[in-house]
Amino acid sequence: MKKLYKVMVVAILASLVLTACGGGGAKADNLLDDIKQRGYILVSTDPNYEPQSFLDTEGKRPSDTKCPSDALTTAEMQGFDVDVAKAIGDALGVETCFATPAWDAITAGNWADKWDLSVGSMTITTARQKILDFSVPYYYTPAVIAVRADSGITDLAGLEGQALCVGAATTYDQWLNKDMEGLGLPESSIYAQPPADITVVPLETDQECAQAIAAGREDFVGYVTSGTVVDANIAAGFPVVKLGSAVYSEDLAAAFDKSSSLPTDTLRAEVDKLFNAMHADGRLSEISNKWFDADLTQAPK
Questions:
Q1: Would you state the pLDDT for residue 26?
Q2: Do 108 and 176 belong to one domain?
Q3: CB < 8 Å & 24+ apart, contacts of 24-30
Q4: CA-CA distance, 240 to 28, in Å (whole number)?
Q5: Closest C-alpha to 140, from 251, 234, 247, 243
Q6: Do 108 and 234 share a domain, yes or no?
Q7: Separation CA 140–CA 226 (nearest Å)
Q8: Does 95 lie in the same domain as 30?
Q9: Same domain as 172, residue 70
Q10: Are residues 162 and 232 in the same domain?
Q11: Please, how many CA atoms are within 13 Å of residue 110, restricted to the half-sphere of its CB?
Q12: Do 124 and 267 sit in the same domain of this protein?
């Protein structure tokens, strides 16, 4: 009995030594190592933001995926942001998976570790920087206004007193509501002031504004969104036209939650390193041309 007891003690001590040395599944002390241990990175993005990110209706979930059951795989999503997120997973040697929470939940921070980072065309603003950390920008887009093709409106002045739709908690929402402090963009990036006496109609995403017009909704005359979204809407046959030129420019980056239970600094450094390399070798330009037929990865001058 004593001999058996000694054997058990030795075995327990050996397992403790292995754990202390990093064996036996030692818990990671930062988010990057945690991601590598589990074998997948969970990225939040929008499933209804074509061409940046949208559901692949023909995609089939692979049987051998490591993604959680409530997350989507790269086979079930497509778009510019999806390809950028996949590049991050590939660089880390893990599978990329997607969470699709509401946009206002992403921009509010305090994610409770439900996803690792956002790759969802998020504009860097001073307000968001209080609760989120950002990578270097991976691309840049103009914010524009689109109106119903039969509206007869030809310039910003013609929008005075009208109703416009925006995605809730977006920079487009802040610009229309003249919340320039919350918008937090440098003056050089703002090209126009919002029209006077605008009624703002928020929907969950700005793409829903375009879809509502296409479905015949008439309580707003147009919407504010990325120029890339409007171009895709027009190409898809939506009854809208772009109104003039850009009203401001957006620097878009991956975002990380400052309230994460695990430090995100090493993960952010890896993403910065990857984005800088992809800018330098043309991979980001290639992805941009694939989805936008234009290279939007160069900072506006």
A1: 83
A2: no
A3: 28/262, 29/262, 29/263, 30/262, 30/263, 30/264, 30/265, 30/266, 30/267
A4: 50
A5: 251
A6: no
A7: 10
A8: yes
A9: no
A10: yes
A11: 3
A12: yes
Domain that holds residue 167: 141-250
The pLDDT mean for the chain works out to 92
Within 10 angstroms of residue 169's Cβ, the number of other Cβ atoms is: 19
pLDDT at position 25 is 63
Tell if the pTM clears 0.90, that is, is over it: no
Question: What's the pLDDT score for residue 140?
Answer: 96
DSSP state of 227: H
Q: pLDDT tens digit string along 141-197?
A: 999 999 999 999 999 999 999 999 999 999 999 999 999 888 889 888 999 999 999
Residues 6 or more apart whose CB falls under 8 angstroms from that of 217 comprise none
Q: Tell me, what's the pLDDT at 15? A: 44
Distance of alpha carbon 197 from alpha carbon 82, whole angstroms = 37
Residues 273 and 241 in one domain: no
Distance linking the first and last C-alpha atoms of the chain:
80
**Does 3 map to a domain?**
no
The helix/strand count (H/E) of the chain reads as 10, 13
Residues in the chain where the model's pLDDT stays below 70: 1-25, 301
Residue 35 falls inside a structural domain: yes
- Looking at residue 109, its amino acid is G
Which two structure tokens, joined as six digits, stand for 93? 């040697």
CA distances from 284 to 229, 280, 289 (A): 18, 9, 9
